[in-house]
Each structure stands twice: as structure tokens, then as C-alpha cells.
Amino acid sequence: MKRILAVDDDIAMTEFYKALFREAGYEMRVAADTTAAVLLFREFLPQLVVLDSDIPAGGGERGFEIIREISRAGVPVIFVTGLPERVRPLLVRNGRVRVFRKPLASGELLSCISEMLSYSGMNCHFFSWSGSRQK
């Protein structure tokens, strides 16, 4: 079973991720801030990270940098954020990083996750949705 770490301080988003990822057959854990995310990353060893850019204890960008350092840039990361312009520079410098704008379509997120976990994620481009969340 593939492992996903979801990092968001919004309880509604973490509950959304729990339901979505478990229904899709992924093992997953959630963290609400950068510190917890790094600790869980080391313990859980996820194969993909879904990360909000606006989280406590350092922000998503800092958490991203630490995770990339720990994993030697090997773990794909998907930012799900209301502020995609903040993380856009990370896309230029790093492979296997994608961005979704909140709110997002669950089917599109799952499709991108599947592609990234199968190492064909380079076909997944910068995504931006303004539609409502779909379950």
C-alpha cells in the first residue's frame, strides 16, 4: 500500500484527505504544522507528500525544503494551497513538485497522485481550479 503524508492546519482539509486517500486505497497520516510534518516524515516514510504552503511552525515552503533534504529530493510533493504564487518558484527549481489551488477537484488530485507515484508525474502540470471540492 502506497503511503501519503498530508500536511494542513485546516481540520476540514485533513478530514477531506483522510476520507479521499483511504477510499482510494492509500495508507496516510496527517500533520498540522512543519515540525510535526518533519517528524512524521522520518517515522512514516511516505512515498508522496501533500502540503499546504500556509502552515504553522515554519510554513510549507520550509517544510518542503527540509523534506527534500531528508529524502535527497526523492519524494514527490504536491502543494495544495490558496496561495499558489508563493510556491511557484519551487516548481522551477525542483522536479516532481506540483501545485493545486484550493478548492480542488478530488478526481484531478487523485489522478496526479497516481501519475506521480508511478514516476510518470512529469506529465502532471501546474494546476489551478476555482471550482468546489468534489468527493
Short description:
With 135 residues, the chain is an alpha/beta fold. 43% of the residues lie in helices and 18% in strands.
List the helices and strands and how they pair.
Elements: E1 3-7, H1 11-23, E2 27-31, H2 34-44, E3 48-51, H3 59-70, E4 77-81, H4 84-93, E5 97-101, H5 106-117
Parallel strand pairs: 1-2, 1-3, 3-4, 4-5
Helix pairs in contact: 2-3
Description:
- This protein is 43% helix and 18% strand.
- The protein has helices at 11-23, 34-44, 59-70, 84-93, 106-117; strands at 3-7, 27-31, 48-51, 77-81, 97-101.
- It contains 5 helices and 5 strands; from the N terminus they run E-H-E-H-E-H-E-H-E-H.
- A 5-stranded parallel β-sheet has the order 2-1-3-4-5, with helices on both faces.
- It has a single domain (3-123), classed as Rossmann fold.
- The longest helix is centred in the first third of the chain and has 13 residues, at 11-23.
- With 135 residues, it is an alpha/beta fold.
- The radius of gyration is 13 Å and the shape is globular.
- Residues 120-135 have low confidence and may be disordered.
